[in-house]
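We emphasize that the prediction below concerns an isolated chain of 166 residues; any contacts that depend on oligomerization or on bound cofactors are therefore not represented. The input was used exactly as deposited, without trimming of termini.
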Amino acid sequence: MIILGIDPGLAIVGYGIVEYQAHGFRTLAYGAITTPAHTPVEERLAAIYDGMSDLITMYHPAEMAIEELFFTKNITTGISVAEARGVALLAAKKKNVSIFEYTPMQVKQAVVGYGGAEKKQVQMMVKTILKLEKMPKLDDTADALAIAICHAHTGGSRIRQFYNIR
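Result of the prediction step, given as a token string:
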């Protein structure tokens, strides 16, 4: 199964595309869709939509895993991230990709084994699990790969399949 992991943002949308089989992972691609600051928001959202659509067309993921939003400090930033997240969800829906959402704690638990893990611990486990030569440059990209790993480890469980849980 091919999984598209997404770490949403308005300036940077991290993505990680992995193939998961019983024998393990194969990393297909990772990177970021970036939008320049001082560009009108609607243009940035259109660029995110186009970039997401291109990724889905190119890699044909069966499922997309995306981080749930959780913000406590800056509501303005949270709103723009929510808009970008909505565009990513729309692109997946329009291309008939199943969508699954995970909290940051669920991602840390699935990747590191501890929901309170630090970002560096998650990044090191992503590098190890995917057998990457080096860490992705952007934290957003590493986070997207972690979300994809989380979905492979938890979303594909027999319990979810048996009870048809999303």
